[in-house]
Amino acid sequence: MCGIIGYVGREPVVPLLFEGLKRLEYRGYDSAGIAILEDGHMTLFRRAGKVGQLESEVSARKLSARTGIGHTRWATHGAPTAENAHPHLDCRGKIAVVHNGIIENFHSLKESLIASGHRFRSQTDSEVLAHLVEEHMDEDLLRAVAAAVSKAEGAFALAILSEDDPERIIVARRGSPLVLGKGKCGTFVCSDIPAIVGNATQVAFLADNEVAELTPEGFHVIDFNGNEVKRPLQPVTIDTLSIQKGGFKHFMLKEIHEQPRAVGETLREKIGADASTIHFPGLGELDTDFDQVYFIACGTAYHASLVAECLWERILPVPIQAVIASEFRQRDMHITPRTLVVAVSQSGETIDTLMAVRRAKEKQARTIALVNSIGSAIERESDGVVYTRAGIEIGVAATKTFSAQIAALSLLGLYLASKRGEITKQEVRSKLADLNFLPGQIAEVLTREEEVAALAGRFYGASDFLFLARGSLYPIALEGALKLKEISYIHAEGYPAGEMKHGPIALIDERMPVVVLMSKHVAYEKVLSNIEEVKARKGIVIVLTDQPNDPALTRLVDYTLLLPSAAPISLPVIYTIPLQLLAYHIAVLRGTDVDQPRNLAKTVTVE
Ligand code: AGP
User: Fold this and answer.
1) 478: Cβ below 6 Å to ligand 1?
2) pLDDT at site 101
């Protein structure tokens, strides 16, 4: 969602801010802005629309400022207009604020600020922060910000610039991530490391309820009570190449093609040299005597959790359920100290998932974070952590992190089952041997891209799609539909194939493409009968199958994509790849913004 960048140092700030803002575009936004101290004066540039447009306007001027903050905004309170774009100013126009998150008590704060004479110019919740700091301007800026944020309820990450303090930026966080960076020529702040890769060489993560003061020489951190805090610097491990498209037309396509490596790295790190032991150092002494399991997650991560539900229920004799994180909080789920809760999240910052973790912790459940980003809020608040090693994912549509999540969850299930003595060492060894083939099998499916692109050419004009599957492939039908919706804006639904006759069958006619995922390992004959039902209503059937030369199937289907024969544990990932490619090529043909689809954000930090 919103993104923050700030710099104070010896270099001209405007190019650094725009470089950072463009690197944050993938998070999703609808307006952007910067505030700089030009010749000692607060100077603001904001507009609705793309960062590139704002950059063209600003670059036309000769600007030499060396301190500034910038922001990409994803509208929550107030429309995506220039007035609502950040930075926001105080009444005197001397303090500028950029803010990620939501100030929940902004109505009451705004009312009392207006009553004491403050004038507001936007509909945003964020503007109250500028006026709150203004209220404390008789104090040092750092203390003024600490005092101001202590009145705000809700989640925030913010950066503040003051005309009276030209060589300082003050930042604060509660709930939304903020990273401090040190480079050769100055100090940075950002909401997400890619914004400063190549410019900062070391980073430190601000924790909740901390404020920091940035100067050209470095930073200094205190907590909201004014106590000094040490935040250790770590080297930046992301390289510039990983945040570039590397010859691909889109990040999404690059990331689809990175899946053999993403899955390979995720598996390699956790499988011992003897090929029969599994290691999860981030779990410490986790008590495996649990009597039920919940996966909590959103979107694509929820689909990975549904796959895990199918895999784990075969090897763990306890109730296992994947629950959408926002629903987990609404319902009265049965949670006890013997419940294991696995929170699955690429970003580790999704607020619905974070809140569900907090609910689980209130009930003293054991919590594991399964995340791709290191140092995230969900990781920090969970008892243990498992990393997917997919590398940074920039396309808003999750692809390589999904397959890496399934790989990590498969290993986690085997690890827990073997620790509890539910499966033998020999069974673990045999499953690991199956999984070891997975990176190669993904690579093999990727060589079929042209066939999938041809299918996309045939169907990109469709207005609806249905995806059908059973068992462990059903979550992949859901994921195929989600990918298509997200990036091509075509209405698509994933359904259990056996459930189609209970409703969705009414939609089927000669214009409806129905993508069916079938495997000899997953109720093959029953899915074949479901295809008969579709054909009887003249639907167009596109089949993904691992069963070559089946005349019963060939007779029925319109298009077939043959997939490699693989062990059941590997099927969900293998069947995912063509669906990602199908969504991608359809979106390209429809001319949508593949990497930054409309209305979507990479990290969803609102409830
Ligand atoms: C996937 O393509 C989505 N953009 C979205 O559904 C995503 O998976 C969801 O918001 C969860 O994000 P997380 O994994 O970072 O928690």
Assistant:
1) no
2) 86
**Rounded distance, CA 527 to CA 415, Å?**
32
Task: Using the structure block, give the residue that is written with the tokens 């990479």.
Answer: 602
Residue 601 confidence (pLDDT): 84
pLDDT in tens, 133-143: 999 988 889 98
> Which mutation among 350, 486, 580 tests ligand 1's pocket best, with the greatest number of atoms within 8 A of CB?
350
Residues 520-532 have a mean pLDDT of 95
Evaluate if residue 593 carries a pLDDT over 90.
yes
Catalytic residue of the set 50, 270, 431, 602 = 602
Per DSSP (E only), the strands in 534-596 are 540-545, 559-562
pTM reported for the whole predicted model: 0.86
Model confidence over 50-76: pLDDT tens digits? 999 999 999 889 899 999 999 999 888
Residues 6 or more apart from 415 whose CB is under 8 A from it?
270, 278, 280
Cβ(301) to ligand 1 under 6 A? yes
Handedness of CA 306, 310, 313, 315 (dihedral sign): negative
Q: Please, what sign has the CA dihedral across residues 25, 46, 116, 134?
A: positive
Contacts of 427 (CB under 8 A, 6+ apart): none
What mean pLDDT value characterizes the chain?
94
pLDDT tens, residue by residue, 528-572: 999 999 999 999 999 999 999 999 999 999 999 999 999 999 999
Q: How confident is the model at residue 4 (pLDDT cuts 50, 70, 90)?
A: very high
**Alpha carbon 101 to its chain's center:** 16
Structure token pair of residue 570: 């590997």
- For residue 472, give the nearest of 572, 403, 544, 570 by alpha carbon: 572
Chain segment 185-218, per-residue pLDDT in tens: 899 999 988 899 999 999 999 988 999 999 999 9
Choose among 403, 186, 414: nearest CA to 288. 414
- Per-residue pLDDT, 40: 92
Q: Strands 3-9, 186-190: parallel, antiparallel or unpaired by DSSP?
A: antiparallel
Structure tokens at 25: 């575009």
Q: Which of 515, 574, 566 is nearest to 541 (CA)?
A: 515
Q: Would the CB of 252 count as within 6 Å of ligand 1?
A: no
Q: What's the distance, Cα to Cα, between the start and end of the chain in Å?
A: 12
Question: In the predicted model, what is the mean pLDDT of residues 443-460?
Answer: 97
The answer to whether residues 430 and 275 touch, using CB atoms and an 8 Å cutoff, is no
Strand pairing partners for 222?
A: 211, 228
Answer yes or no: are the C-beta atoms of 514 and 541 closer than 8 Å.
Answer: yes
For residue 160 the two structure tokens come to 């503040």
Q: Is residue 419 annotated as part of the catalytic site, yes or no?
A: no
- For ligand 1, is residue 580 a contact (CB within 6 Å)? no
Reference 538, options 552, 517, 556, 561; nearest CA is 556
- By three-state DSSP, how is residue 489 classified? coil
Tokens describing residue 530: 């479901």
Please answer whether residues 252 and 393 qualify as being in contact, where contact means their C-beta atoms are separated by less than 8 angstroms.
no
Q: Note if 501 is an active site residue.
A: no
In sequence order, what DSSP letters do the residues of 77-123 get, joined into one string?
SS-SSTTTSSPEE-TTS-EEEEEEEEETTHHHHHHHHHHTT----SS
Residues 6+ apart with CB under 8 A from 195: 3, 5, 19, 20, 21, 23, 24, 188
Three-class secondary structure of residue 287 per DSSP = coil
